TrEMBL record, chain A:
Chief location bin: membrane
Entry GO terms, CC: plasma membrane
Superkingdom field: Bacteria
Name by which UniProt lists this protein: Oligopeptide transport system ATP-binding protein
Subcellular location: Cell membrane
Pfam families given in the database record: ABC_tran, oligo_HPY
Transmembrane segments: none
Species for this entry: Nonomuraea fuscirosea
Membrane topology according to the record: Peripheral membrane protein
Automatic annotation (TrEMBL), chain B:
Taxonomic lineage: Bacteria, Bacillati, Actinomycetota, Actinomycetes, Streptosporangiales
GO-annotated molecular function: peptide transmembrane transporter activity
SUPFAM superfamilies: Periplasmic binding protein-like II
Source species: Nonomuraea fuscirosea
Gene Ontology CC terms: ATP-binding cassette (ABC) transporter complex; periplasmic space
InterPro entries: Peptide/Ni-bd, SBP_5, SBP_5_dom
Gene Ontology process terms (BP): peptide transport
Protein name per Swiss-Prot or TrEMBL: Peptide/nickel transport system substrate-binding protein/oligopeptide transport system substrate-binding protein
TrEMBL record, chain C:
Family under the similarity heading: Belongs to the binding-protein-dependent transport system permease family.
PROSITE patterns named in the record: ABC_TM1
Organism in which the protein naturally occurs: Nonomuraea fuscirosea
Residue stretches making up the ABC transmembrane type-1 domain: 96-295
Lineage: Bacteria, Bacillati, Actinomycetota, Actinomycetes, Streptosporangiales
Transmembrane segments: 9-30, 104-124, 131-158, 170-188, 234-256, 276-302
Subcellular location: Cell membrane
Main location: membrane
Keywords: Cell membrane, Membrane, Transmembrane, Transmembrane helix, Transport
Protein name in the entry: Oligopeptide transport system permease protein
InterPro entries referenced in this protein's UniProt entry, alphabetically: BPD_transp_1_N (IPR045621), MetI-like (IPR000515), MetI-like_sf (IPR035906)
Automatic annotation (TrEMBL), chain D:
Protein topology in the membrane: Multi-pass membrane protein
Keywords: Cell membrane, Membrane, Transmembrane, Transmembrane helix, Transport
Sequence ranges assigned to domain ABC transmembrane type-1 in this UniProt record: 99-285
Gene Ontology annotations for the cellular component aspect, listed alphabetically: plasma membrane
Gene3D superfamilies to which the protein is assigned, alphabetical: MetI-like
InterPro entries: BP-dependent_transpt_permease, MetI-like, MetI-like_sf
Name by which UniProt lists this protein: Peptide/nickel transport system permease protein/oligopeptide transport system permease protein
Membership in a protein family: Belongs to the binding-protein-dependent transport system permease family.
The organism of origin for this protein: Nonomuraea fuscirosea
Entry's transmembrane regions: 30-51, 99-122, 134-154, 160-178, 266-285
Any one biological process term the GO annotation gives: transmembrane transport
Length: 333, 527, 309, 303
């Protein structure tokens, strides 16, 4: 933990995690195109967007999981208290993973090694970063399982991932992320693969752990309903860009981007029961064949002549950004 | 069960076998002992009992029969026999040299020969060489058409005293001394009859070498021979001989090349390589055999002798031998080559290459219509030669469709016997003993199992019977006349007499072939 | 697991029985005359000896009677007599060590080389090493094995003199290196390629990302999370490929003059030596079934997801 | 509360149409090269006379023993075989039997595997038990030994008998995959649905199960073609396959082995053709499999 302070660029005043102008290419296709967001300790940032919008790729890029030959980060920075992860030596970066910044994956079944017991997989963290003995590490792993509320943790530590239910498995996944008490946790759609009732439990667990440790949490989801309760801030992504960003309550109440507006229309609400859900017409653009201008234009009801130009991100309030030429029309009821 | 345990067990097993086999391999020979190794085909080591032996050089190292055939003169000379006498070529009196013993010290007597011969002639023993005793009186009683034999001994073999044997045949056979030279007629000691299968694996013979160690067993590819101190004939030079068996001569030649062997037979295309590689350490060995194209006389298309002559003239034997066999062979001008006593005569008038005459003869006979099928048994050399013959017949006789078919031995021979083969067949025939008579008898006598063409000539039979009755000199002339007669009838046309080779390492010398082409083991000098 | 193993063993019984019958049927149905095969091309047995041999080997009995008496013998532990007059059990006892050593050598070569090459290729995907392994293994797949065997004998044995050309004189391991290598080439490409794809699959697997995100050292990620998982499917291929190896001994033992089971069966077929073909053939099937049972049990240990039973 | 998701909201539009398989294949150099070679080999098999004459020779049966085993010479780029025939034209004509056998065996194996595999997979129970045990017998038995025995037994040795034997020992691998995929498909929901509306067994099998289960088998068969060609040459090499005067690479190699030391070109040229052909089919199968069904890699690994 103290390691971060000794690294170049450390600035105690800087936000815990600040991503800016991040670009990621897969082959010839730019899938993340200048993404930036920030989150500080104790805060929860929800990153919203449909599949393929680049939200998961951004997270993986921050974690250093985007590597040749599959893809490459071509520009931008991801700073932890000012320390740019992307320019750090690989060995330094490795030491930060798990200890300072950790990740919860979408599908715990595939994210866990199927042929190693869950206890072993958690214990690996203690052995790799704290040099604990096999036995000691195993004991600590049981503690972690206990922490994520897995019943009879000592016994279950010897079980294999396929022997757990979906919800329990995701608890193990969260356990892996929080084991070393990192300052930043990125949770990539942690509830997508789960039943609705279990989803709520997992989100609640994440929220509790975050509050206890004052962690910064980046919660990636395509499901606005899930995060409405716990998000402090929201960043909405579309086609590799952040199209709107701001405090959760504000964004929910007064979306400033037609896409956000459409997303909100797509949340089933009790008061809308009996009516058809709003459907966003059309399909997201093919990232392999980018067209000039606003990416959302083909699906946008507000589109005007200006939309032929790429809209810049403009600040429309404190900490509130939107990338829409017509934002004023959107916010006007 | 853990992975580690499984792997551990496997490793242990490997280590154990490694130790056990390491011990048996590379057994050192004592200093100063003269030894060499020789490669033979597995066939040579199939059985070692006289009645089952194949008359290989190993058999001759272990056993010495009554006579041997002198390689240079081609004459049958006495070995264990002191004298062999007859007045009528039917009743023979054999005197045995004194002092000969088996490897276990037992005296070699007339009884030893009688015991061995009776065992072989007795059908229920099912010894492969049983058929060789057919000329002996009493054979029929031991080999009834069905049911159990009424007798256990040949009435034609009589032990007069320990040194005298009286043989009675059913009909005259002046060449008996040649016949007796085969290991099938070697003696067996009393000890053999206590355990015949055991004897077959580790025989006790009377030859210059005795079997060392375990002898033959399933899976054994190597036996050791040790010089027999009490041998009464010409003793061998080496103290110890290692005989290794191989699937074929090519495999043993490869080991010779790699230096793992001292003497090996060389056949086929390896001869060319051996000639270049071993130069004067390659001995050319003309085999007492003939490769011929037999005509199915039961097939109407071949009933006209002109057709057969046309075929014979259409084959370019010179080129086949020169190109295909790289000169290792003797283009046939007659039935037997010069290596067979009585052979070497150009008795095959139709064996000259003359395509024009061939065409004319075929036209005279009414031409050829339809496809032609040529047959042989599975053998690399046969197949290649047959294909060349087919090409020449097509080119020189204008036969459109010529196909070849090979069958395993065990299918081809029964098919031949049943006259189910519908075309000329390429076969190999080796003389049973070194005499033209043997070859002529095997190929042309009506009752011979190897007369596959169905040739049947009373005139030929008469000449052969006369030869059997006559003395050795006269018999030769009669046999040659019989052979010429058969060749004029042309039931088959000889193609070539095969030639093999014996190659040897620099460690040995004095390598010379015995009758069947393999090296005479007792003659090989070490160093 | 014990119950599962027992079940599998029981299932193997009808398979073995079926195998013996099929082989017996095939040998029985071989056209041609076993007696003529015994005599060879240049020798004609006398009719009386032929008759004696037919009786001794029950050649004139109908198929089912022959098979019945064979089974009866089998139950009392008697594998019968070969045509050469030796008990089949003795033939097997004398030959199996050769085949065992050859098989183990080839298996080791195949496994070690195959896994090594496949791993290197997988980890170095798209680079020179990968291209070399892929190219090399495909070429090996295409080149006829006998060409390889002859070339190896001439080059390694005769010209360079590094290894014995044939025979078992040099003992294990020297005598078995060359035939073992040639035999291993049968399965090596498959093992290497499967290892490679398996490594690739696992490199792309989510759990490897997890391991990386945990901050494990790259070597730990590769060894514990990529290789360990990648080798599981390879283990099952190793069992199946034993079948190829056993088949291959028939050829390799002939070419290299090794008196093993394959050699016995190869020489016994043209001789119509039914007892040897059936005995040795059944043994090979039995070994195959047992090894595959072991492999499946091992698989169950290596991969906890597999429930045996 | 059924939480709707963005994915479901926009899922109506199909994911930007799967890039065409052909386009995907065409981008792989291995595919381009191997399919080109395979096409050339097939063309050779179909019209050998069009290729054989390139260097002036052309008739594989025009032989002069005087030339026996001579090395390459002008007009005869591969030299002469042991009968003194032009080796090049013989090698060209040799493609025919290899390709014919590959076709016959592939077709035969598919038929047997599809019939037995579907029966076992669809009906299960004792039908499956019997068929599976029979497959076990064939799996365990050293195939080469079996093939030698049967071919020894065959009185004729032509493309048909060799193919028949190869099919006999080759079908279980395919049938096992077929069985597995039928098993998987037959439990699928649309099959249950079809059964629900009263479709007959035959109809369900033919219309619903087979088309869906056939894919893996077809791809696996493609992978197999190279192996079939190699097996033919191995059997022929052992002397139980094709026989002269048939012109085949196996026959040429079988003859050449005796002359390996003195006339290595007899072994080398047919070997190169055989190797390249087998290779191209293996690579072709590989590319097809990767393009069509990456999932199959596992199945191939665990036949």
């Amino acid at each position: 933990m103290t390691r971060l302070e000794s690294l170049p660029g450390y600035d105690a005043a800087a936000p815990l995690l600040a991503v800016s102008e991040l670009r990621v290419r897969f082959g010839a296709t730019t899938v993340v195109d200048g993404v930036g967001y920030e989150v500080d300790g104790g805060q929860t940032l929800a990153v919203l967007g449909e599949s393929g919008s680049g939200k998961s790729v951004t997270a993986r890029a921050i974690m250093g999981l985007v590597r040749p030959p599959r893809g490459a980060v071509t520009a931008g920075s991801a700073r932890l208290r000012g320390v740019d992860l992307l320019t750090l030596a690989e060995e330094e970066r490795r030491r930060l993973r798990g200890t300072t910044i950790a990740m919860v994956f979408q599908d715990a079944l595939s994210a866990l090694n199927p042929v190693l017991s869950v206890g072993y997989q958690i214990a690996e963290l203690f052995r790799a970063h704290q040099g604990l003995s096999r036995k000691e590490a195993a004991r600590r792993a049981v503690e972690v399982l206990d922490l994520v509320r897995i019943p009879s943790a000592a016994r279950r530590a010897r079980d294999y991932p396929h022997q757990f239910s979906g919800g329990m498995r995701q608890r193990v996944g969260i356990g892996l992320a929080i084991a070393l008490n990192p300052q930043v946790i990125i949770a990539d759609e942690p509830t997508t693969a789960l039943d609705v009732t279990v989803q709520a439990q997992i989100i609640r667990l994440l929220g509790e752990l975050q509050r206890e440790h004052g962690t910064a949490l980046v919660l990636i989801t395509h499901d606005m309903g899930v995060v409405a309760d716990i998000a402090d801030r929201v960043a909405v992504m579309y086609a590799g860009r952040v199209v709107e960003q701001g405090a959760a309550a504000e964004v929910y109440a007064r979306p400033a981007h037609p896409y956000t507006e459409a997303l909100l229309g797509a949340i089933p609400r009790p008061e809308l029961r009996g009516r058809r859900l709003a459907v966003i017409p059309g399909a997201p653009p093919d990232p392999g064949r980018p067209e000039p201008g606003c990416r959302f234009r083909p699906r946008c009801g507000y589109a005007g002549d200006a939309c032929g130009q790429q809209p810049p991100a403009r600040e429309i309030g404190p900490g509130r950004l939107t990338a829409c030429h017509e934002w004023e029309r959107v916010t006007t009821p | 069960m853990s992975v580690k345990k499984v792997l551990g067990a496997a490793a242990l097993a490997v280590a154990l076998t490694a130790c056990s086999s390491g011990g048996s391999g590379g057994a050192g020979t004592p200093q100063g002992e003269k030894s060499f190794s020789v490669g033979v085909t597995t066939y040579f080591l199939s059985h070692l009992t006289p009645g089952r032996s194949v008359a290989s050089n190993v058999d001759y190292a272990l056993f010495t029969p009554l006579t041997t055939v002198d390689a240079t003169s081609g004459k049958a000379v006495n070995a264990v026999a002191e004298s062999i006498e007859t007045d009528d070529n039917v009743t023979w009196t054999v005197k045995i040299k004194p002092g000969w013993t088996f490897h276990n010290g037992e005296q070699v007597t007339a009884q030893s020969f009688a015991d061995s011969w009776n065992a072989t002639a007795y059908a229920p023993n099912a010894f492969e060489n049983n058929f060789m005793f057919a000329p002996f009186k009493g054979y029929a009683e031991l080999n009834p058409a069905d049911g159990k034999p009424s007798e256990k001994t040949l009435s034609g073999v009589e032990v007069v005293d320990p040194a005298t044997l009286k043989i009675t045949l059913t009909k005259p056979l002046s060449l008996l001394p040649y016949v007796l030279a085969q290991t099938a007629f070697a003696p067996m000691p009393k000890a053999a009859f206590a355990d015949l299968p055991g004897f077959d694996r580790k025989p006790i013979g009377n030859g210059p070498y005795q079997l060392d160690g375990e002898g033959l067993a399933a899976g054994v590819t190597k036996v050791a021979l040790r010089k027999f101190g009490g041998y009464q004939g010409q003793a061998g030079d080496a103290d110890r001989i290692e005989v290794k068996s191989y699937q074929d001569e090519a495999a043993s030649y490869r080991d010779l090349q790699a230096g793992a062997l001292d003497v090996s037979l060389v056949t086929g295309n390896n001869l060319t390589d051996a000639a270049a590689r071993f130069k004067d350490r390659l001995v050319r060995v003309p085999f007492p055999a003939v490769i011929y194209l037999g005509f199915p006389l039961w097939d109407k298309r071949f009933s006209d002798v002109k057709v057969r002559q046309a075929f014979a003239h259409a084959i370019d034997r010179e080129t086949i031998v020169k190109s295909l066999l790289r000169g290792f062979g003797q283009p046939a001008t007659g039935l037997a080559g010069a290596s067979v006593p009585g052979g070497g005569a150009a008795d095959c008038a139709a064996c000259s290459y003359d395509p024009a005459k061939a065409k004319a003869l075929l036209a005279e006979a009414g031409g050829w219509s339809g496809p032609l099928k040529l047959w042989t048994y599975q053998d690399p050399v046969n197949t290649v030669v047959l294909e060349a013959v087919g090409n020449q017949l097509r080119a020189n006789l204008g036969i459109e469709t010529v196909t070849t078919q090979t069958q395993p031995v065990d299918q081809l021979y029964p098919n031949l016997a049943a006259k189910k083969i519908d075309g000329p067949v390429l076969l190999y025939m080796g003389a049973g003993y070194p005499h033209l008579y043997a070859l002529a008898d095997q190929l042309f006598t009506k009752t011979s199992a190897s007369n596959v063409t169905g040739y049947d000539s009373p005139e030929f039979a008469k000449l052969m019977a006369d030869a059997a009755k006559a003395g050795q000199e006269e018999a030769m002339g009669l046999t040659q006349r019989a052979a010429k007669l058969a060749m004029d009838g042309l039931p088959l046309t000889p193609l070539f007499q095969p030639v093999g080779g014996l190659a040897y390492s620099t460690r040995v010398s004095g390598v010379k072939p015995e009758f069947l082409g393999a090296a005479v083991l007792s003659a090989v000098k070490v160093g | 697991m014990g119950k599962y193993a027992l079940h599998r063993l029981l299932m193997a019984l009808p398979v073995l029985l079926g195998t013996t019958f099929l082989i017996y049927l095939a040998v029985y149905a071989l056209p041609g005359d076993p007696i003529q095969a015994l005599a060879g091309p240049n020798r004609a047995l006398s009719p009386s000896v032929e008759q004696a041999l037919r009786e001794r080997f029950h050649l004139d009995d109908p198929l089912l009677v022959q098979y019945g008496s064979y089974l009866k013998g089998l139950l009392s532990g008697d594998l019968g007599m070969s045509f050469a007059g030796r008990p089949v059990s003795e033939v097997i006892a004398a030959s199996w060590p050769v085949t065992f050593q050859l098989g183990v050598t080839a298996w080791l070569f195949m496994t070690v080389l195959g896994v090594l090459l496949g791993t290197v290729a997988g980890l170095r995907r798209g680079r020179l090493a990968d291209a070399l392994v892929l190219g090399g293994t495909t070429v090996v797949m295409g080149v006829p094995f006998f060409v390889v065997a002859y070339v190896a004998q001439i080059v390694l044995g005769v010209n360079l003199g590094w290894l014995p050309v044939s025979g078992t004189d040099a003992g294990w391991p020297l005598a078995y290196v060359m035939p073992g290598l040639v035999l291993a080439l049968y399965g090596l490409p498959q093992v290497a390629r499967l290892t490679r794809t398996s490594v690739l699959d696992n490199l792309n697997a989510d759990h490897v990302d997890t391991a990386t995100a945990k901050g494990l050292r790259p070597r730990a990620v590769v060894v514990r999370h990529v290789l360990r998982n990648s080798l599981i499917p390879v283990v099952s291929l190793l069992g199946v490929s034993l079948g190829y190896l056993l088949s291959g001994t028939v050829l390799i033992e002939g070419i290299f003059n090794l008196p093993g089971l394959g050699y016995q069966i190869f020489t016994a077929i043209p001789q119509h030596d039914g007892p040897v073909v059936v005995g040795v053939g059944t043994l090979l099937v039995l070994v195959f079934l047992l090894v595959n049972l072991l492999v499946d049990l091992l698989y169950g240990i290596l991969d906890p997801r597999i429930r045996l039973g | 509360m059924a939480s709707s998701t963005l994915a479901s909201a926009s899922a109506e539009a199909p994911p930007a149409a799967r890039p065409g398989l052909l386009a995907k294949l065409r981008r792989r150099p291995a595919f381009a090269i191997s399919s080109a070679i395979a096409l050339v080999v097939c063309a050779m098999a179909a019209v050998p006379q069009a290729f054989a004459g390139w260097f002036g020779g052309g008739d594989p049966r025009k032989c002069d023993l005087v030339n026996s085993g001579l090395p390459p010479a002008p007009g005869h780029p591969f030299g002469f075989d042991i009968q003194g025939c032009d080796l090049y034209s013989n090698v060209v004509y040799g493609a025919r039997s290899s390709v014919l056998i590959a076709l016959l065996v592939t077709a035969g194996m598919i038929v047997v595997a599809v019939v037995l595999g579907s029966l076992a997979g669809y009906f299960r129970g004792w039908v499956d038990a019997v068929i599976s045990r029979v497959m076990d017998v064939f799996f365990g038995f050293p195939a080469l030994v079996g093939m030698i025995v049967l071919l020894q037994a065959a009185s004729t040795h032509n493309e048909w008998t060799v193919s028949a034997v190869l099919i006999l020992f080759g079908w279980p691998v395919l049938a096992r995959v077929m069985r597995g995929s039928v098993l998987e498909t037959a439990t699928g929901e649309y099959v249950a649905a079809a059964r629900g509306v009263g479709a007959g067994t035959a109809r369900i099998l033919l219309r619903h199960v087979l088309p869906n289960a056939l894919g893996p088998v077809a791809v696996l068969t493609g992978l197999n073609v190279g192996g079939v060609i190699a097996s033919e040459s191995a059997l022929t090499f052992l002397g139980v396959g094709l026989q002269t005067p048939a012109i085949s690479w196996g026959v040429q190699l079988n003859t050449a082995q005796q002359y390996f030391v003195t006339s290595p070109h007899l072994l080398i040229f047919p070997s190169i053709f055989l190797t390249v052909t087998v290779l191209s089919f293996v690579l072709l199968g590989d590319s097809l499999r990767d393009a069509f069904d990456p999932r199959l890699r596992q199945e191939v690994a665990r036949p």
